[in-house]
Amino acid sequence: MILVTGAAGFIGANFVLDWLTVNDEPVVNLDKLTYAGNQQNLTRLEDDRRHVFVQGDIGDSVLIERLLAEHRPRAIINFAAESHVDRSIHGPEDFIQTNVLGTFRLLEAVRAYWAGLSDSEQTAFRFLHVSTDEVYGTLMPDAPAFSETNPYQPNSPYSASKAASDHLVRAWHHTYGLPILTTNCSNNYGPYQFPEKLIPLVINNALQGKPLPIYGDGQQVRDWLYVADHCSAIRRVLEEGAPGEVYNIGGWNEMPNIRIVRTICALLDELRPNVAGPYSRLITYVKDRPGHDRRYAIDARKIERELGWKPAETFESGIRKTVQWYLNNAEWVTNVTSGAYREWVGKQYGRCKGVA
Ligand code: NAD
Ligand code: TYD
After folding, report:
1. Tens digit of pLDDT for each residue in 288-323?
2. How many whole angstroms from 192 Cα to the centroid of ligand 2?
3. Is the pTM of this model over 0.85?
4. CB 9 less than 6 A from any atom of ligand 1
């Protein structure tokens, strides 16, 4: 079986749902259930005996030791993290706690477990650390996309904490021989993404007739990947990746934020037309994010060349599926945007009249 951390969150939940669709290997899912973790993402697995959910913290060494001894996983996939840049600007401490200290404690518990495995089990074992392209910093408009050898230049508390975790993981391989794999992926979108991130926030606000907040001039570029493609890449790296290696994952799909928002507006005009007029009327430019990285782009040639992975979805097909999913799952959105979510929106967008 495999142990997956943070799999009540956006990408982890998609990963577990896909994993149990394509094979039968059981999953232990360890998640702290922070504001971003939601068991409703896993409702489909309620009666599935292949999925065991455990609420807990990757920084809880005693719990991790117990889970490893009890379930004896052949692999660990570490999604658990604080993941939102804007929250890291308001309050970096949780990011250091989970992304740095939590990863450290998890690595230590896994190292002790791995040391007790037989030679063949040790050779087959994998620790796959899920990371981000944001660790590489920002790119000038015509600079080549990030490759695995780019230096780390993280600019936000979030990316700095993820960079620190990547360094720990690397060192645990180099020093102790732990068979680790690291993936650095670009921006994901798709079902179950918490509506604090750009794409679900824009869909949700548009449907409620609220302003669509664009930071700065909206010309910041991200490289967007449909979440199911990220999940298939992780499965590929887990099975075929070489221990100690890093694989960049991306969609070859660079786009400025304003174009993303206009695309969503056009899709909503088609799928859920509003008598008040086109959704683009709600676009509102607001104050920029401090330290906002201008451009990210992933060079995904290594994973294609060495592991034969390529994204299956185009941006056009992926964003249509995503908008349709949010239209079909209004109840999920209502449930996750109650209570604490409102406090966050008030804190982040309070200065922008009408968004909060
Ligand atoms: P998310 O915020 O939606 O989910 C994170 C999950 O981790 C939540 O379920 C939360 O409850 C859980 N968690 C947080 N702290 C924990 C702790 N201490 N112990 C156990 N569980 C804890 O994030 P996501 O977007 O699904 O991202 C998952 C991973 O992928 C993160 O490591 C992130 O850095 C990385 N990543 C995300 C993107 C993206 O676009 N979302 C892109 C590249 C990489
Ligand atoms: P986000 O989804 O927060 O991902 P990240 O910061 O990790 O790339 O933001 C994606 C881009 O959208 C980023 O350039 C910031 C911008 N953005 C806005 O313009 N308005 C918003 O309300 C949000 C949440 C993001």
Report:
1. 999 999 999 999 999 999 999 999 999 999 999 999
2. 17
3. yes
4. yes
